Amino acid sequence: GRKDIITKLVKNNNIKDVLFHMLDEIKSNHQIYVVSPLIEDEEGESNLETVYELKEKFDKAFNNKVKIGILHGKMKNSEKDEIMESYKNGDTKVLISTTVIEVGVDVKNSTMMIIFNAERFGMSTLHQLRGRVGRNDLQSYCYLISDHEAERLKVLEESNDGFYISEKDFELRGEGDLFGTRQSGDMVFKMGDIKRDYKILTQCKTDAKEFINNNIVDNFTTYPQFKKLIKELEFID
Fold this sequence. Notes:
The protein is an alpha/beta fold. It contains 8 helices and 6 strands. Helix 5 packs antiparallel against helix 6. It is elongated and about 80 Å long. The mean pLDDT is 85.
C-alpha cells in the first residue's frame, strides 16, 4: 500500500517553497527528516550546511514554534536514544541529522526527507535516506537541495526503483578497479565492457581454462604473461 516517494531537485534560492511544504506537513501532524553532510564547520567546507547551522535557520524560519531535534554520530548513545525516542513518539516534529539515520530507522509518520548538499552523497546513500519516508500509505516527499546539475540527482528524481538506480550508478561511475583501489571509472580493457560483454568474457574464461588444462603447450603456466592472464580471468564467475 505504499506510494512512490515524490522526489524533487531544488536549488537553494527556491528553499522557501520547501519551507512552506514543511509547514503544511507539520500542520497535518506529520514529521520530517533533514539531512546534512556535516556536524560542524570543517576547514575548506564552509559552503556546506552543518546540522547546527540548519537548526538555527529552521528555528528562525518557524519562529521557534516547531520542536526540532539534532542527531549525529558524535553524541553519546544515551543522548541519541533520547532524541530518537522524542521523534518516535511524535514530540519532535523535525529531526536534523547526519547519515546516521540511513538505515534502521522506522517512523511511519515521517512523510518528508530533505537532503542538503545532496551532490555530496552517492546514489545508494541518497536512495537509502529517501527510504526512511514513505513507510506507510501516506504520500511522502524527498527534496534534494543542491545548486549542482548532477545527472545522478536527476536519476533519483525520476525513479524510486533501486535496481534501476544501481544500474544508472554503474553506468555513470564505471565499474572501478577489481584488482586495485579505484572505486569508480572504467577498467583498463581497450575494447571490452564488463557489463555489455559479460557473456563473452565468461566464455573466454571457460575456453582459457580448457586450453590450459589440456596442456596444449608444455609448461604453459610457467610463462609470466600467461600467469597474469589466468589471474585476470579468475574474477569472472
